[in-house]
Design brief:
By secondary structure, the chain is an alpha+beta fold. It has two helices and seven strands; from the N terminus they run αββαβββββ. The protein has helices at about 10-25, 55-60; strands spanning about 30, 45-50, 65-70, 75-85, 90-95, 95-100, 105. The protein has a seven-stranded mixed beta sheet.
Length: about 130
């Protein structure tokens, strides 16, 4: 894929995250973007994107993050998104809501499309 790139920072970030998590949760499953998945008999699985926004990172745009989620038996438990440049963090936990930094947040009450903002991300696959 033409735009699907990997940097040394992707690999270094993933290695650091895996080292930290595997030391604390050695029997969990791990789904990672840059290396082979690690499977065990655990009900818990970490899903890791060590450098979410590699393309922007690779051209010097500081709009990227580290994204980590945890599921139990395919149900979300918690997740965190961290931008190391701005030291900005968003985290969510089942039945605890979402927090931006330490402040709780919620989705908009907007119910009509004409008053909404919509985000769209286009992947790298070209399905013709």
């Amino acid at each position: 894929m033409a735009a699907d790139i990997r940097t040394q920072a992707d690999l270094d970030s993933e290695n650091a995250i895996l080292g930290f998590l595997k030391e604390r949760y050695p029997n969990f499953n791990y789904i990672t973007e840059e290396s082979d998945n690690i499977e065990s008999d655990s009900d818990f699985t970490f899903i890791i994107d060590p450098l979410d926004g590699t393309n922007t990172f690779s051209v010097g745009i500081p709009n990227f993050s580290v994204s980590i989620g945890l599921i139990k038996n395919l149900e979300p438990v918690c997740g965190v998104v961290y931008n190391p440049i701005s030291n900005f963090i968003v985290h969510a936990q089942t039945n605890e809501g979402t927090h931006v930094e330490l402040e709780p947040t919620r989705v908009s009450n907007t119910t009509t499309l004409d008053k909404s903002t919509i985000g769209y991300s286009c992947g790298y696959h070209n399905y013709r």
